[in-house]
Specification:
- The complex is a heterodimer of chains A (145) and B (774).
- Chain A is an all-alpha fold and 145 residues long.
- Chain A is built from seven helices and no strands.
- Chain A has a single domain, classed as Alpha Horseshoe (Serine Threonine Protein Phosphatase 5, Tetratricopeptide repeat), CATH 1.25.40.10.
- The radius of gyration of chain A is 15 Å and the shape is globular.
- Chain B has 774 residues and is an alpha+beta fold.
- Chain B has six domains: 46 residues; 99 residues, Penicillin-binding protein 1b fold; 186 residues, Orthogonal Bundle (Penicillin binding protein transpeptidase fold), CATH 1.10.3810; 222 residues, Beta-lactamase; 100 residues, Beta-lactamase; 55 residues, no CATH class.
- A five-stranded mixed beta sheet of chain B has the order 11-1-15-23-24. Chain B has a five-stranded mixed beta sheet with strand order 3-4-5-8-9, with no helix packed on it. In chain B, strands 17-16-28-27-26 form a five-stranded antiparallel beta sheet, with helices on both faces.
- In chain B, strand 6 and strand 7 form a beta hairpin.
- In chain B, 44% of the residues are buried.
- Classes of the chains: A mainly alpha (145), B alpha+beta (774).
- The interface between A and B is medium-sized, with 31 and 37 residues.
């Protein structure tokens, strides 16, 4: 990934973070494509490339399906798909992030908090995602007030 | 002449006086009767016309490249989903061909709430038991993830046990309508409910053949008879049928009557279930929706109306063909089929796709589900509203769980003949539940050995002592004060409880006087566990246990530490899920969605979670439970082919009344219980009775075995400690050093006191010995 692209990405994420500095039901999504997908599609090798396991790839397919449902205002069906994605690969942290997001849309703060915590565990090695998880946490706190 | 005229006028006057009023009264009476019938018809037609049983579906089955599958189970699944094995290239939906290294599968249309996919032909390639690739044969593109449709698990039947799929007249192809009219009532669109010509023709045909070859009833009459009247043959019933037909014809359009008829007619039998209506019949005989029926298939269904079981292609193909061809000829007579079409159709063989009738699937799971459904729906609603109920059940896991339990129990009975009771109600029992720990999805539930003998669900209704399977909850209670390396006493102690003496014993002799916390749990050492429990405090243990959602509250008795308190097996499985799910307790989920007959969502359930312990504590307990499998009481798992990382705990209660094994990976958790309902001894431990069932079950579910272990969360640190003291090891001094996990805020800070001065003491001893020589 070139430096300029990285800067642009950080700028975009920062901008996105700023834009979503509101409360639910704004859905904050770090990137429309998953990290694995980007690696697969571009063939670029990041700092620590690791070939995703088949089940990680399958789970991310469902993550994308769920994300689309969420973006289309269908949190209930999205939750079902994310749960299925977790059952395939429980280590896919993005599913916990989006589940938290979906519960936030459904105004269930308790579940949003729980899934946000799980997202933090499974995305702690991914700076970009972790940043989003922290922003999500702040949004949840604001919404719970 | 005058007399004759007078006679006529008398007759006319008599007629005017008596006959006309009689006719008018009769006519009025008939009119009133028709009005009465019309209200009956209207009431029936304006409400629900049919009872449609609600259907229960399993979860979807997901396939993806790189996934391990049990190919035997996979093919069984395809058969259960109604796929038919063929030896040619599959060219219609529902067909598949198996070749050595791949399977070509023409998928059914896939439709679940919010998702729909048209059936496509795919090629699934295998390398042994691994899916190498999934290719869409329509365009050659790889498919990253493939979902197989949910499997119908059961139907909530009413008394009639009728299967039916409603169709509208617009869905039925014209050639199918022609076939039905040709077979039953070719002048349907010309008469008004009664067809005198049809009656005469039937009479003539029957006289000519000296047997009943044709009926004179119109479709409207048949509908009146089937829908409103009892089957007995009496004059008054026939009269009522006539009036009802005439009334229906006045009240409804021809197409409305035909539509009701097409949904009503009885068209066959699938084991004990009646196939009603053309919608259900088209799936039963041809595995396709009515819209897709060909002319020949339409004629085949039409030919069944006269005698669904007599002419059934499943009973006698030749007889069916003969009758079908009669229908085709009748179509030809009416000009509803072309000559060339007729020629081809007459020669076509009768083909039906075949069906399998199954015994009850997952009966204990269904009972558990039905119990939850009764909170929303009455049994009558469930058998009539045509709901679609989607569940978390995985039929492959369910069937493997049933098989593993059955085999395990038979094996035990063979190994010890005293366990083999002839009375089915007194037989050795067992129960299995399989859960996905992160989401709480119940994949399988076997509540007993034989549902038809005993419907008592030993997973959800039994209250049994968990024995040592409870110990992890004691150990997790102590993680703030103790560490896996802490040293416990393994010496006999006597405790006084409420004035009575309690002297716990070890299950098997353990020579060491002191053992580590990890070792005490791995080897399930009672004395060390009680020592720990007493040092933690029983109140604290009871409070911690109650956090894990046991529905029977734990009381702070000393014997609690050894699991001498009753639990419901489902609760125990759920509590273990928290260890496998970063300290999060998920609510066990069986019901996912309920949709009405039009696909409208009525109920939806999701995973619901609650944190009960920190991810760090969950990780450390899992690591300790892994030692149970690696070097403790469950180490025989390795001999049974379980070579991937597993955390688990055996459990055996006093006098061998209960045998348990709960084992898990990050992907799947299964609990197995074995015992007698009356609490008799099974003379076997959890490791001998329950563990082999677990091993057999999980070995057959490669799709749930990733081989991964839990990721070390923040808040966990690793240190090298001395196994004798449990404190930080001193390099080159402590003889037995081990790496151990600790909570970041409960790390040993001191160095090993046993070996710290060992060299010095050794030197002093040397000096002393030297001095003694003089």
């Amino acid at each position: 990934m070139s430096n300029s692209f990285k800067s642009l990405l950080i700028f975009c994420i920062g901008g996105l973070g700023f834009v979503v500095w509101g409360c639910a039901p704004v859905i904050s999504i770090p990137s429309s494509q998953t990290r694995w997908n980007r690696d697969i599609q571009t063939g670029e090798i990041g700092s620590a490339p690791e070939k995703p396991s088949p089940r990680a790839v399958a789970s991310l397919q469902l993550t994308d399906q769920g994300r689309r449902l969420l973006e289309n205002g269908n949190p209930d069906d999205a939750i079902g798909v994310f749960e299925q994605a977790i059952n395939i690969d429980p280590t896919n942290g993005q599913n916990y992030y989006y589940l938290s997001e979906a519960w936030l849309v459904k105004e269930n703060i308790v579940q949003a908090v729980e899934f946000n915590r799980l997202a933090a565990i499974y995305l702690e090695d991914d700076e970009e995602w972790l940043n989003q998880v922290m922003l999500q946490k702040e949004r949840i706190i604001r919404c719970s007030r | 002449m005058v007399k004759k005229k007078r006679s006529i006028s008398v007759k006319l006057r008599w007629m005017l006086k008596w006959f006309l009023p009689a006719v008018l009264i009769m006519g009025g009476g008939m009119l009133l009767y028709c009005l009465y019938l019309s209200s009956q018809i209207d009431e029936r037609f304006s409400g629900r016309r049919w009872s449609i049983p609600s259907r229960v579906f399993s979860d979807v089955t997901i396939l993806y490249p790189g996934q391990k599958v049990n190919r035997t189970l996979f093919y069984e699944k395809l058969h259960r989903l109604g796929y038919r094995e063929v030896f040619h290239e599959p060219h219609s939906k529902g067909e598949f061909r198996t070749l050595a290294a791949w399977v070509e599968l023409f998928l059914h249309d896939f439709e679940v709430p919010s998702r729909r996919r048209e059936g496509i032909c795919v090629k699934i390639s295998f390398v042994e038991d691994l899916i190498e690739s999934i290719i869409n044969l329509n365009n050659g593109e790889p498919i990253p993830i493939l979902e197989l449709e949910p499997e119908e698990v059961m139907l909530f039947f009413g008394h009639d046990r009728e299967r039916r799929r409603l169709v509208s007249i617009d869905q039925v192809p014209q050639h199918v309508i022609y076939a039905i009219l040709a077979a039953e009532d070719s002048r349907f669109y010309q008469h008004r409910g009664l067809d005198p010509l049809g009656i005469l023709r039937a009479l003539y045909t029957n006289l000519r053949h000296a047997s009943i070859r044709q009926g004179g009833s119109t479709i409207t009459q048949q509908l009146a008879k089937n829908y409103f009247l009892t089957p007995e043959r009496t004059f008054f019933r026939k009269l009522k049928e006539l009036f009802m037909s005439l009334t229906m014809e006045i009240m409804y359009e021809k197409n409305e009557i035909l539509e009701i008829y097409l949904n009503e007619i009885y068209l066959g039998q699938k084991a004990s279930e009646a196939i009603n209506g053309i919608g259900e019949a088209s799936f039963f005989y041809f595995d396709k929706p009515v819209e897709k029926l060909s002319q020949i298939e339409g004629a085949t269904i039409a030919c069944l109306i006269r005698g669904p079981n007599y002419y059934s292609p499943y009973v006698d193909k030749r007889r069916c063909k003969k009758r079908r061809n009669l229908v085709l000829y009748a179509m030809k007579d009416k000009g509803w089929i072309l000559d060339e079409e007729l020629g081809t159709a007459l020669l076509a063989p009768v083909k039906a796709v075949g069906y399998e009738s199954y015994s009850k699937k997952a009966p204990y799971f269904i009972d558990y589900l039905a119990y939850q459904l009764t909170m929303f729906y009455s049994p009558q609603d469930l058998s009539s509203l045509g709901l679609s109920i989607y569940t978390t059940l995985d039929t492959q896991v369910q069937m493997e769980a049933e098989k593993a339990l059955q085999k395990g129990l038979v094996r035990l009975e063979k190994s010890n003949l005293t366990l083999n009771h002839q009375d089915p109600k007194k037989k050795l029992q067992g129960a299995v539940i399989v859960i996905q720990p992160k989401t709480g999805y119940i994949l399988a539930m076997v509540g007993g050995r034989n549902h038809s003998v005993s419907q008592f669900n030993r997973i959800t209704q039994a209250r049994r002592q968990p024995g040592s399977a409870f110990k992890p909850f004691v150990y997790v209670s102590g993680l703030d004060k103790f560490t896996p390396a802490s040293i416990l006493s393994n010496e006999t102690e006597t405790y006084e409880v409420d004035g009575t003496i309690w002297e716990p014993q070890n299950y098997a002799p353990v020579s060491e006087k002191k053992v580590s916390v990890r070792s005490a749990l791995a080897k399930s050492i009672n004395l060390a566990t009680v020592d720990l429990a007493m040092r933690i405090g029983l109140d604290h243990i009871a409070a911690t246990a109650n956090l894990f959602g046991f529905s029977i509250p734990a009381n702070p008795y000393p014997s609690l530490s050894l699991g001498a308190y009753e639990v419901i097996p489902l609760n125990l499985a759920r509590a273990y899920c928290a260890f496998a799910a970063d300290g999060v307790l998920s609510f066990p989920l069986s019901l996912k969605k309920v949709l009405d007959e039009n696909g409208k969502m009525l109920e939806q359930r999701h995973t619901s979670i609650k944190r009960v312990i920190s991810p760090a504590k969950a990780f450390i307990i899992s690591s300790m439970l892994r030692s149970v499998v690696d070097e403790g009481t469950a180490r025989s798992l390795k001999d049974m082919g379980i070579l991937f990382p597993v955390g688990g705990k055996t459990g055996t209660t006093n006098k061998y009344k209960d045998a348990w094994f709960v084992g898990y990976t990050p992907d799947i958790l299964a609990l197995v219980w074995v015992g007698f309902d009356d609490g008799s001894s099974i003379h076997a431990s959890g490791a001998r009775a329950a563990l082999p069932i677990w091993a057999e079950l999980i070995s057959n579910l490669p799709q749930f075995v990733s081989g991964n272990w839990f990721k070390e969360p923040s808040g966990v640190v690793k240190r090298t400690v001395c196994s004798e003291s449990g404190q930080l090891a001193i390099k080159n001094r402590c003889p037995h050093q081990v790496e151990e996990y600790f909570l970041a805020d409960n790390v040993p800070l001191d160095y090993c006191p046993i070996h710290r001065w060992a060299q010095f003491r050794h030197m002093i001893k040397g000096v002393k010995d030297f001095v003694k020589q003089f």
